[in-house]
Amino acid sequence: MTEWKDGIAKITLPTPFPVGDVNVYLLKGERLTLVDAGPKTEAAWESLTAQLRELNLRPEDIDQVILTHDHPDHTGLLDFFSDTLEVYGHPLNERWIHPTENFLQECSHFFKSLFHKSGLPLEFMNVLENHKNMLKYSCNRSLTGTLTEGMRPPGLSEWRVLETPGHAQSQVAYYREKDGIMLGGDLILAHISPNPLLEPPVPGESMRPKPQQQHNHSMQKLLSYPIQMVYTGHGKEVFQLEELVKQRLVSQHDRAMKVNKWLKESELTVFEICQRLFPSVYKRELFLTLSETIGQLDYLSSIGEIISRDTQPMLFLAK
């Protein structure tokens, strides 16, 4: 049964993705606000409208949507709402939720080049098509306005924006100071560690982001706030935030050091490391596992443990 608790109603929607259900949230404020929107499927829309009815609401009663990040499971259902619905989020949502042909071509070129350097065999290059297919569950509409660090969303004077990139370049969290409640999107999840996903360079930059390092920094940033509980993008709420953040940072470091040990024994490509890290799932979830693998290599490079040899494909070795 969907119900209000401290001005927040949690709504869980089905997705077609391996991660399973996604959580979106209704907030009472000066404006009735939906945080995230679910994937663009009839099943998600039917579930959303049914749960709104339990609150004696209709989709038309929602005044605005604010986004935690741009991924299809959090944005696609925007296309089912009226064109007049206002949508707010970080500026870097725009290129994904309202993509131009130029941006899609830029993505294709970026990933082809990166995967070639990673030593991906030709028979696995369909990962690009699989990534493109995910976007069919996304939306095609623009932001009404943007939200960045320290801002308060329209009609939500109790909530403040925290920029938390890593899982996505556009990711933000929403923090309510009066009771330490945070809406965290996919920054921190109780049951799994979110993937730091690869993206092309952000506008105005020539180098690609390093999402694992960003993700670590964003998790550490949360420890500067007296957060009592996190409503998450998937699964259950997080109550012991500091303990979980520290656990995740240790686990990530340990995984990276496993890779470092392999590189002390022999030079390896990204793809060879990916196969070792994820032997049972790399074929099925190649984009996610390559993102994770490159994230571990970025981390090892940042702490001075490894270097890369500029060959085709690129080879990595321990110092």
How is this structure best described in words?
The protein has a domain at 4-99 and 134-241: Ribonuclease Z/Hydroxyacylglutathione hydrolase-like (Metallo-beta-lactamase, Chain A, 4-Layer Sandwich). It is 34% helix and 16% strand. The chain has 9 helices and 13 strands. The strands form 3 sheets. It has a 7-stranded mixed beta sheet, covered by helices on one side. The chain has a 4-stranded mixed beta sheet with strand order 8-9-10-11, with no helix packed on it. A two-stranded antiparallel ribbon has the order 12-13. Strand 1 (4-5) and strand 2 (8-13) form a beta hairpin. The protein is globular, with a radius of gyration of 20 Å. The mean pLDDT is 96.
**CATH homologous superfamily placement of the domain at 4-99 and 134-241:** Ribonuclease Z/Hydroxyacylglutathione hydrolase-like
Detail the poorly predicted runs: none
Number of helical regions: 9
Strand order of the largest sheet: 1-2-3-4-5-6-7
Coarse structural class:
alpha/beta
State the end-to-end CA separation. Answer: 56 Å
Q: How big a fraction of the residues is strand?
A: 15-25%
Mean pLDDT: 96
| CATH architecture designation of the domain at 4-99 and 134-241 | 4-Layer Sandwich
Order of helices and strands: EEEEHEHEHHHEEEEHEHHHEE
What characteristic shape results from the CA principal axes?
globular
CATH domain fold name of the domain at 4-99 and 134-241: Metallo-beta-lactamase, Chain A
Q: Please provide the count of β strands.
A: 13
Q: How much is the radius of gyration in Å?
A: 20 Å
Helix share bin? 25-40%
Output the CATH class name of the domain at 4-99 and 134-241: Alpha Beta
Summarize the main sheet: 7 strands, mixed
